[in-house]
Protein: EFMT2 methyltransferase
Organism: Pycnonotus jocosus
Amino acid sequence: FSPSVLGTREHWDAAYERELQTFQDIGDTGEIWFGEESMVRIIRWLEKHKVPLDSSVLDIGTGNGVLLVELAKSGYMNLTGIDYSPSAIQLSEKVREKEGMSNIKLKVEDFLAPSAELSGFDICIDKGTFDAISLNPSDAAGKRKLYVGSLCRVLKPEGFFLITSCNWTKEELLNEFREGFEILEELPTPKFCFGGRIGNSVTALVFQRK
């Protein structure tokens, strides 16, 4: 991928500062990455596989925290969201407060250098964070390896990792997470047709940690 400002912390700090101001002004929570259906897809999978409601869930790059709110509304009780942007965490705290979801834990954390207490999760969820890391202008390949290493540290053996991406194909993601993870399922995402070929603009996969 070509390096992009979308891979920099400065970009996301500025973006979430704007969204925080907008939320304070008019109560708009801001953009939902990959749309509402991406959240529904994740929650349906958890429900279909009867994942216990007290399972520990980590939302990697939580942004405005709306996914965690929806998980809480579905009955999940042990929810943590992290983001390296303090403005994102401020925004997600405001959203949590508005929705009355006091049981959601939120922390400023850089997933590429996670703190020691960030460990033992049953489920990790990523909607676009791995994509953003892949666009970092400074050693994106090295940062992707750090990401996989962090995921191995924070996710329990046999824990589930649900990733939604618009930059990577299924085959590419299988290659990126080949060490320490096995594919369980590809989740259905919207299809498009271009030049007579059918493809997906978004890839959603479920891995299990070995």
